Amino acid sequence: MIRVVLPQHLRTLVGVSGEVELCIDGAATPRAILDALEARYPMLRGTIRDQVTQERRAFLRFFACQEDVSHESADFQLPDDVASGDEPLMIVGAIAGG
Amino acid sequence: MSKARVLVGTRKGAFVLTSDGKRKSWDVAGPFFAGWEIYHVAGSPADPNRLYASQSSAWFGQVIQRSDDGGVTWAPVGNKFVYDGVPGTHQWYDGTAHPWEFKRVWYLEPSLTDPDVVYAGVEDAALFRSSDGGQNWEELSGLRQHGSGPRWQPGAGGMCLHTIILDPTNPDRIYIAISAAGAFRTDDGGKSWRPINQGLKSQYIPDPNAEVGHCVHKMAMHPSRPGVLFMQKHWDVMRSDDAGDMWREVSGNLPTDFGFVVDVHAHEPETVYVVPIKSDSEHYPLDGKLQVYRSRSGGDEWEALTKGLPQENCYVNVLRDAMAVDSLDSCGVYFGTTGGQVYASVDAGDSWKPIVRDLPAVLSVEVQTLS
After folding, report:
1. B99 near B34, Cβ under 8 Å?
2. pLDDT for B57-84, tens place per residue?
3. In angstroms, rounded to a whole number, what is the distance separating the alpha carbons of residues B356 and B339?
4. What are the chain A neighbours of B60 within 8 Å (beta carbons)?
5. How far is CA B127 from CA A20, B109, B263, B360, in A?
6. What string of DSSP letters covers A41-74?
7. Most B-contacting residue of A6, A40, A51, A92 (CB-CB within 10 A), to test interface
8. Whether the complex's predicted ipTM surpasses the cut of 0.90
9. Contact (CB, 8 A) for B283 and B289
10. Does residue A46 contact residue A56 with C-beta atoms inside 8 Å?
11. pTM above 0.90, yes or no
12. Minimal CA–CA distance to B333: which of B342, B320, B321, B344?
């Protein structure tokens, strides 16, 4: 079981109040987790990564076990604690005013 | 019993205001999509309960929302806006070539006859169409590929396609406007387009009479006379009597002819409204007095409408999509400000009052007349 923490606006968009739990096949990578996330919540397509290039949106960061993994490849093997569900993958909006 | 429903898009959410035909007291619902920029909310003329909203954010990109119950409940639909083919480049602010990049949907125009058909004007400028209620979007790429695209450039707000006007007498004719490229028309349902900018003079571009490059802020048409168009250009209020083939200036006695909005009275096709703004470098009313100007002669001669509007210390702006008219009798006129007020007149502009105030900055105002 993979746990994902979404930013507030995306929790509202998909209609969840807390973490999202996902089952994925294979390795716990950003790509696999986002594929599973978008399959469950199609309205998230385009909100975290570009629908064509699959690039992470510029104002979003990915954190795992207090480490910034935003700039790792989409196939980066996330830490075991994320793969086991002990720690969540956190999708965090950049802090900016307005 | 007639009703009016005002659809307000703001920097931080959407609001739906409803009133009976007297339009004296208003119920305010919202914010919907709180915290997101809502560039536009529009209702289908064919099914007034069908609404579309453009929801966007620098963080999370573009979402399109649809309501099938008049704005009570909403659900996200398709948000995949992909340019047809290799998008190419347009001019950047400094004149260099810049790749076309989708940023957001500025404007939604539902079909006059089919609630599942809706057009979207986007930044960077292009026109998209959905025929399945917003689930899937396809670019009408004949516009962007007209040939002049490499000479289009962004205005201060971005290179946005902000006006879509459907001709009620000719389903193949559509007008659009882009800042800063100009106005365009198709007569074959969107396959091919041609610029309709003859007569526009823009001193702020290298060739003031250029075929494209004009910063058109808004266009409006009365449905009974689809060949007559009114335009608020960056500077200058313009009019065309031949479907945009030629324009003439009708700024007349306006105290300043810079502005963003223009609209036409629902029952009087020669009665036109604008909100003069001081200048392109000072985006607020002249002398701190918020004034709507009305022409009853299709331009040239304008009268200031001030009753009920602040006449001192008012430094708000009225953005390009933030004016609308209802078709009740008498015609209601509505506009929203960057200060968060939505003003309404139920007597065609003679007097005004705020129907809501202290909203986030208003980006767009539409009104539906319901029976």
Report:
1. no
2. 999 999 999 999 999 999 999 999 999 9
3. 11
4. 7, 9-10, 13, 47-48, 57, 60, 93
5. 36, 11, 22, 28
6. -GGGTTTSB-TTT-PBPTTEEEEETTEE-TTS-T
7. A51
8. yes
9. no
10. no
11. yes
12. B344
